[in-house]
Write the structure tokens for this entry.
Amino acid sequence: MGLLDSFFDWLGFGKREVNVLVVGLDNSGKSSLLNYLRPRETQTDFIAPTVGFNLEHFVCKGLSFTAFDMSGQSRYRTLWGNYYRTTNGIIFVVDSSDKTRILVAREELQQLLSHPDISSRNIPIVFFANKMDIRDALSDVGVSSALGLDGVTNKSWHICSSNALKGEGVADGIEWLSSAIKSSLDQARR
Amino acid sequence: MPSNKREKSASRQYQEISGNTNENETDQTRPTTTTAATDTKSKWLSAHNDFVAGINTVGSCVELVDLYAEGSVNLVIADFGNILLMPKIQAKLKVFKEFSLLKENNLSDLPCAVVACYMDTLQPRIPALAVASGSAVFLFKSLRPYYKFVLPQMEIAQVEKDVWHKAREGNIDMRAMHDVLNDLHRGGTVPLTHRSLAFLQMTNTNEAHQFVEHYKTIELKRQSCITCMKKLNKNSADEDALNCLVIGTEDQHIYIIEAQAFTIMATMNCPATPSFLDVSGVYDVEFRILATCRNGYIYLFRRGSETPRNAIYLNSIAVGLERFGKNIIVGCMDSSLHCYTTKGKRYWKHLLPAQITAMCQIDYRPKGFQAVAVALANNEIHLYKDKFLVDVIQVEENIYAMKFGKLGREDATLVMITKNGGLLVKILKRTATFEESDTLHGPPKEQQVKIDVPKRTKLYVDQTLREKEQAENMYRIFQQDLIRLKLLTGKEFLKSVQAGLNPIAKTKNEAIRINAEVHGLGPRFKLTVKLQNTSSTSLTPIIDLFISFTYDENIYSLNPNYIEIPILITGIEYGFCTFVTCITDKVISDIIKVYVCRRDSSAPLISAVINMPVAEPNLSI
Ligand SMILES: Nc1nc2c(ncn2[C@@H]2O[C@H](COP(=O)(O)OP(=O)(O)OP(=O)(O)O)[C@@H](O)[C@H]2O)c(=O)[nH]1
Ligand SMILES: [Mg+2]
């Protein structure tokens, strides 16, 4: 961030640019969630499984977000690590109806947290316990305990249930992330 | 589903009782700290442990299939139910979504195999389930019974037919009936129907009478039983192409059945009853069927031939059969695992630490990982990649059925059914790697390490050239020297034997060991000669020996200098002493030779040379 930019920020002009990484297993609803955050006219009804990654933009609480919508398929999961260094926050989407793979999600989270680019920094993480509308889906508390979030003590995190198709819970989580990123940026500046 | 909830809580109780730390219920109220996912060393995530699922089945009755073509794979199990309640049959076809029961259908007989197959060309590709049980294959479409295929009738002996025909006409003579059927059975040439066999087993006349009364009007049939079933692609190698079914039967046949109209397209004669099948290829083009049989053979059938092409003899009976390309991996009852080529050549054999309870193939395409999993009676699952043991999974109970494949949306899951009816699911970690090195079997890894050979020097090149040119000469010289050395050694040996110089004397039947010690500081020493008769062939003692000494009489005087040895008994060590006095004033020492001789021979039997120490001067006070 250039000197001029920070000056503008200090004045409250313009919007701060931040990067967030959207990760989670395939089919968890990452692309759907970002689709919901788009302006209404550009939203699509049909979302194909992501290949590699896609870039999305949205604005929240005076921050301009660039979201890296990563593919969750196991063969693309190694890509996640390339973006850890530059990210300001992480959105971790979990399919709370997929009980078979909740442990796989936990394993991937464990890998993410132990990555040197993540473990050394205080990056806020928001968890979406997505697909809460599906019968038999785990609650946010259930997902939190299945992922072992109690053990995550050196990061600020937040979990909320969501329905990426209808948008329930999405705004809530994104707002938390915005303020968490803001405060972490302020902290870093000081 | 309330019943399922109950089962889950019960399973948690079970685990608490057994003190099991592998608690992995993905349940809302589950404590998080005890998950096995923290076990970082294991290559597997324990996704589900339900020890009271109450499933009783074998590997061929477990199938993983996307029943609704929605990208999420269901687990299908043909459950035997509680076989202790036989003859009441509780067999069920169970379909699971996630880990909870989605639907179940009753089966009329014990199942032996479940196969998911495509039997139409409609889109989306929704597979049907074929369940082989008894003498029929039941087809389920969308989990509803759809078609029943029955094995062809078999011939019945005319005599047997007549017996039952007579019974139908009313003149039932139990005794005569029994005798005729019994003779037929004893004769062994014609197999009887199940009905006649059941009749012969009856001991109670009343019961037998009722039996005949009940069955006499029903048409007499003889049908075989299905022992195994697999699917074969009909006209294309695509994964979702039309299938046909391959069925092995008790009466030693293999049938290929078209799954659209249920006609038998091909029949093969197997020399024995097949127990496991492996099918590859495409029916219309070329296919191979491998069948392990109850006589301990594996037979290979190919398109267009009714009889087997090849036969491989196993030393034991097969308990599992998997194929990777041209390699056949077969587990046997004598807890051995073999790898053969389809031509019958054996690549390797491993003796496993315990009996095999289940086998399955692991084919994880995204990583190109192929292995065979072998569950053992010591609660371990061994993974063999080629001949290398690459992983050992510990489980809590004996595994009776296993299947690897896609479950739900996860590509690499291993579904296991335990002896006591538990359902376990493990997921292969994305980061897991299997090293082909193996300390148990095969050459060590170091053998593959290339040695860093230094550059060839001029000297080396010259030397090799010379060796090339002069090879014959060199060889001859070497041989000459070698022979000369041998001759020299022989000569010396002969000399020492003749002179009795070596410390162990060996004549034809006498062996004596000598050992001499010098005690004291001087000028007076004590010399002890120890002799032992070491001959092991004869136990007769050696008699008539004596010891004498040679020495410089200017330096030493010995008393006595001649010792009689009356007898040497085998094994016992004798000590003979003499006193040596140094009689010179000079500070010198010399040697003393000890000879053990026979009275009747001039050459000593054995001798020893003693280096005497320098004597202290005589201090006379
Ligand atoms: N019922 C329900 N379905 C959802 C929800 N969110 C997403 N889905 C569905 O889940 C499927 C997968 O969604 P995607 O957004 O493509 O998932 P993804 O995480 O981007 O998957 P990859 O790109 O393969 O990593 C789609 O069919 C969505 O319609 C939800 O909240 N409820
Ligand atoms: Mg996507």
Remarks:
- The mean pLDDT of chain A is 87.
- Chain A has six helices and six strands.
- The helical segments of chain A are 3-11, 30-37, 102-114, 116-119, 140-147, 170-189.
- The domain at 17-189 of chain A is CATH 3.40.50.300 (Rossmann fold).
